[in-house]
Design goal:
This protein is of the alpha+beta class. It is built from 6 helices and 4 strands, in the order αββαββαααα. It has helices at about 10-25, 50-60, 85-95, 100-110, 125-140, 145-150; strands at about 25-30, 40-45, 65, 75-85.
Amino acid sequence: MQSRKVSVMSPVDAAYLAGLIDGEGTIALTKIHRGQNRQLVVTIRSTELALLEWTKSITGVGKITTKRTSSPHHSPGYTYCVSNRQALDVLTQVQQYLRSYKSLRSRLVIENYLKLTPRNGKYTAMLLEARRTFEQLFSAISIRGRANELQRS
């Protein structure tokens, strides 16, 4: 099955999407199944479905899921999610506009994810060790890590 290609975004759309990712999104390496390596995932959570539908329409990829409300007076929540190479393509287009610590995470992913993720899933011992180091570096980049970097600048 051929995966969909990410649409080319206008600079304005890419910048707006970067703002959504900075404010309401996550860039993560997540284990989907036990025993598998972590996969790149970009998510945006919102109670405004139209905003996430716009995100899906300008990227041309991803899915939107509905979160169950725990109380009748709560607004329903939605999550836009895109993963792996499609997430990498989205990050490549929005990276220059990201302003939070997520900019550092996206730069690290763009530079290393494909080199450290074989399509067939077969890792040599050396590649697996490099992948683990990459995951540790990625995890170390957090809001606290970004604040420390800004203080050193």
